[in-house]
């Protein structure tokens, strides 16, 4: 209540000065908040990176456990050659 009474007794110049200051303060605050990435965004990026890293590891393990197509084709050629040779 005292603040309201104090505002009414202030000169128009003082009121305008406070209004302008408050406006600039809000702009500065918004600019500083937007320039700093939120912690949620950082955590989400880290989570994605971790998932991608694990995915690559799993994919590599799966591919290494499968015989490559080149080696299977080579084995088939050898078998075919062996069959032909036996005849």
Automatic annotation (TrEMBL):
Q: Where is the composition biased (Basic and acidic residues)?
A: 13-24
Taxon lineage: Eukaryota, Metazoa, Cnidaria, Anthozoa, Octocorallia
Q: Which parts of the sequence are annotated with region: Disordered? A: 1-87
Q: Where is the composition biased (Basic residues)?
A: 46-59
> Polar residues bias located where?
1-12, 62-73
Q: Please identify the protein, giving its name as recorded.
A: Uncharacterized protein
